[in-house]
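WP5 quarterly update. Target: UDP-D-xylose:beta-D-glucoside alpha-1,3-D-xylosyltransferase. Source organism: Ixodes ricinus. Length: 227 aa.
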Amino acid sequence: MCSSKCMRRCSLFAFVVIGSLALLASFRYTQTPGKGDRCPNGKTPTASLHVNGSTQNRGPVTLVVVTCAGGMEMTMTSLKSAVAFSRAPLRLILYADVENIKRLQDRIMQWPASVFTRITYDLRLVTFPKEDFKKWKQLFRPCSTQRLFLPDILPNEDVVLYVDADTLFLHPVEDLLEAFEKMNERHLMALVHEIEDEATNWYHQHGKTPYIPPFGVNAGVMLINLT
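Structure tokens (predicted):
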């Protein structure tokens, strides 16, 4: 007989499997994408933006995701969930290491042409300070510290939404932009608390550096104001 912990794990696994299948089913495979935005190797897989409905006048939502080491499948699931639930145009800025950047492009190019009527993407190699490149890349999870340098490497952006590769969207991405309306010129980013349970809170159990009380913050989803 499974323990309660085992049952929770089984339920979580079932949820991920069902959610992934639902996302795959939401994509209808048609012809290859048309021409549009830039990508490595001179390929142009995207098309001009056009959205019907109440979001047609909304500007593109800029989503930043980082993929390194073995995070490819998580990244693809996250991106598919963002595309499946959003109705506004999406602009994806995707950072990846050398081992994954070509694989990431190949996987995205398999999406149906209909997706690229409102999606553009830009693939970029991860970048860290040259003096401690390997240290920064491997600190915490591979390439997770790339988010710390976004204000420096995205000088031409106004507002972006950064998410970890293991983030699964169940609502439109554009709904999160309402938080920017509550920010002023003094605010750099918006985050939420780490899990609000002292018994399982990561900072309470493992944190060795100062954190914002009482629970710390979760940097897996960050709304960043770069203006």
